[in-house]
Amino acid sequence: MASNPNSLAARDIASLIHPYTNLEKHKETGPTIMARGDGVYVYDDSGKRYLEGMAGLWSTSLGFSEKRLVEAATRQMEALPTYHIFGGRSTEPSIELAEALLKIVPKGLGKVLFANSGSEANDQAAKIVWFYHNAIGKPLKKRIIGRVRGYHGITVFAGSMTGQVANHIEWDLPIGGVLRTDCPSHYLFGEPGETEAQFVDRLVGNLEALIEREGPETIGAFIAEPVNGAGGVIVPPKDYFPRIQEVLRRHDILMIADEVICGFGRTGQMFGCDTFGIEPDIMTVAKALSSAYLPISATVISEAIAEKITAHAGKIGNFAHGFTYAGHPVAAAVALETLRIYEERDIIAHVQEVAPHLQARLRALAAHPLVGEARGVGLIGALQLVTDKASRTVLPAAAGIGPLIQARAMERGVIIRASPDAVFVCPPLIITKAEIDELMDALSAALDDGL
Ligand code: PLP
């Protein structure tokens, strides 16, 4: 693939360690080098066009050629290209972005801490849980409950809250301080004959038992994505979150909603919290906050928490936490412009208009011999791949089926994502119905090719 040592591909292989890549295999296959973008499409360096059915990494909500974001970045670069918000300094974009966020987040949330990535926002959420419990004189109430298949990032503590084996083995994670509870997929984890309502009862009972066994006085928070993304696009049963949250409230355990994928319209409402009836004490956002044009994330906390940590910082003389680039003015200006575009173009109404088409096309594939379940909400969805519908599993002979379907779709000019036994779609929010057809036609043809 990379016989010319001066080619970009050869230089890539010689110089880069790629995230989430089989590094040994990459030496043979080399990279796909993306060169430019236009709307929902990206073009590689040979000129081949791909419909980006994953919005990059579940993130590029406004597509790959939104001029207003480029202009917002340029304006801010020219005015003040960088500054920090430590020690009481501030910048107009960081103030305006915090205000704009607070206007749209669920009620009760009242202050914003900026960071640069989803992992950092979640790490920061955990640290706020710890600092807050010190502030209110409950220094033992620190452990955090994560869920099987939850994904919260890869920094040391976000990676520990993440509930995926691949992020733990060989990385010496999780470190202490994390408890784990169930994943709410009825299809994957329901017992034979168990109804969805019984399944939710069981999960709620398991959570209650875990809290009682470990001691509620040692547990500070519960973290969950409204819809698990990387863990399989798991859409929870309707009453799952209200029931879970009732247990948490009773034990005085904070709810952290990880909206890194779901935030800003993905599920058909502004936040996954709105779609699933979650009332978070802490919410984290990233990705679509800036349409992923620049790295920026935020941890949004309740007024009640903000009050206590402010008083505590006053008492000890400092709030000794913060990233150099937190609230970076250029990233903040781009994020602010992104939020303005969502409002002016009513992105939520657009998602509500086109999402039923994506969901209908996904559901139509449920009858396919290789599909066990088609699931999704808004503009995010998955096909659970099976080679044995009765046991809901992929037989060993068909291992690698997800990546195979993904590779075939890519040959057809469509980018989707795969796990060993599922494929995912999460297109830019600006996608049209015709583009949804192009995406789904390629996915269905890739399935029809069989194994
Ligand atoms: N939380 C969720 C739900 C995510 O999907 C991701 C990344 O995909 C993260 C957190 C971590 O974000 P980042 O990769 O920006 O650190």
TrEMBL record:
Domain of life: Bacteria
Classification via SUPFAM superfamilies: PLP-dependent transferases
Cofactor(s) needed by this chain: pyridoxal 5'-phosphate
Nucleotide-binding keyword on record: no
GO MF annotation, one: transaminase activity
Family named by the database record: Belongs to the class-III pyridoxal-phosphate-dependent aminotransferase family.
Protein name per UniProt: Aspartate aminotransferase family protein
Organism name: Plastoroseomonas hellenica
